[in-house]
Amino acid sequence: MKLDPTSGIPFYRQVEAALAEQIRTGALPSGTLLPSVRLQAEALLVSVITVKQAYDALEAGGLVYSQQGRGTFVAERGAEAAREKVRADLHRELTAARDHARARGVTDDELKSLFLTFLESP
Amino acid sequence: MKLDPTSGIPFYRQVEAALAEQIRTGALPSGTLLPSVRLQAEALLVSVITVKQAYDALEAGGLVYSQQGRGTFVAERGAEAAREKVRADLHRELTAARDHARARGVTDDELKSLFLTFLESP
Amino acid sequence: MKLDPTSGIPFYRQVEAALAEQIRTGALPSGTLLPSVRLQAEALLVSVITVKQAYDALEAGGLVYSQQGRGTFVAERGAEAAREKVRADLHRELTAARDHARARGVTDDELKSLFLTFLESP
Amino acid sequence: MKLDPTSGIPFYRQVEAALAEQIRTGALPSGTLLPSVRLQAEALLVSVITVKQAYDALEAGGLVYSQQGRGTFVAERGAEAAREKVRADLHRELTAARDHARARGVTDDELKSLFLTFLESP
DNA sequence: GTGGTCTAGACCACA
DNA sequence: GTGGTCTAGACCACC
User: Fold this and answer.
1) Is the C-beta of residue D34 closer than 7 Å to nucleic acid chain E?
2) What is the pTM of this model?
3) Residue nearest E8 (alpha carbon to C1')
4) Cβ partners under 8 Å of residue A97, min gap 6
């Protein structure tokens, strides 16, 4: 897992996204014990607080659960929750782009052809 | 023009976006003298510097030009520059959404059908 | 004579440069009475003060002289003074560019070849 | 680094230029953490906003990137971006001088010999 | 601690 | 009057 400091995306979101992706793909199956915030922080060269924020966000989304004194584990329905998260994020992005474009006078036809062009490019 | 302090979008970007939109639609035709930074600041209840940042951003994008002692004017090709800006923004948004989705295992077919659904909803 | 408000060059300098050029070419021969600041200002759609600043600058450079109550005239050696001004301006520009480049690690050889390339382009 | 308030060059441009030069020469290698805007402002006896403007300009040119809560760092391709900036600036200066001279009746031959003379002087 | 944004004043060159 | 620059504070999100 690598963090990109130049992307403008906060570290804690990058960590959250990377773990969510591993949970979605099954690289981290349900029940798996995540590294402790301390170890994770050392491994990523970030602060403990940053990792904690990421774990909290994952827990809020139902991808993991934590137990006082034991650690943080991938939830039973973690992969499913991760997929729901992908859908929700995508829904938000596309809706925003559509509304944005409409508000600025781009017709749906233009928007459609523009998008289909993007899908064909690699 | 109204500013929304709860949106999380900086004031200077909101001002920039609102003026860019008026230039794009022709509500502010080329050659028009914009309100001075001071007047605009008073009208919007923000600081002079905030308005200045917005005007600077518009000038950097070629939508307006300003001259010491005279004021800030809508550029000759201002509306065109505004349309280019819309296109560039839309391009960035759609590309990001596409790459995002692909990286998370959404197939192009799914993405396409999802997008077409969005276009049909109001 | 046309003024370009988008160039960033103050109006009074644009007026000064335009008149200096007409004096240099002989379009305004020595002894010619320049339009009054009031007429010139009306013709150029600028303020009287702006024209006055331009006339003052020309007088300081020896291109024109003014007589209280009579007006402003092209000086006897006006064309010559204009040519000297061109040389002085050019000297300043080239020296600045050279020093600038040297201070930033551009070798004289690079600078030379770069400049010769520019001279060959239209 | 010293600021010259008599030069007529805005502080934020002086700061920008000084840092760009240090990045170009490698005195500030890529990855280096720049002094925080607050520290830099104290050291130079200017306001925080002035330093911020300089840092913003450097970031717009790709010489540095900044991240909330971490600081401002010299970009990976910072030195390269600095060299490109030098080239672009020089290009603009030389082109302007050439066009200026041509418009005022200086032949390319005169211009060439004048320039070569300058290059030989220290 | 950091950068990102904002305020309410100010002086200057230009018109 | 205008824009261009600057100051000395301030609150917020992030680390």
Assistant:
1) yes
2) 0.88
3) B47
4) B90, B93, B94, B97
Q: Whose structure tokens read 């607050």?
A: D38
The CA-based dihedral angle spanning residues D36, D26, D64, C102, taken in that order and rounded to the nearest 10 degrees? 110
Which residue type sits at C12?
Answer: Y
What is the per-residue pLDDT across C79-108, written as a single tens digit (0 to 9) for each? 999 999 999 999 999 999 999 999 999 999
Residues of the domain holding C53: 1-122
> Into how many domains does chain A fold?
1
Yes or no, beta carbons of A5 and D68 under 8 Å apart: no
CA distance C116 to D108: 10
Q: Which nucleotides of F are covered by protein (CB under 7 A)?
A: 1-10, 13-15
Distance (Å, whole) CA C63 – CA C65: 7
Instruction: Give the C-alpha separation, C14 to D80, whole Å.
Output: 37
Closest alpha carbon to D4 in D31, D42, D35, D44: D44
Q: What span, in angstroms and rounded, lies between the C-alpha atoms of C119 and D74?
A: 36
Q: What is the CATH number of the domain that holds C50?
A: 1.10.10.10
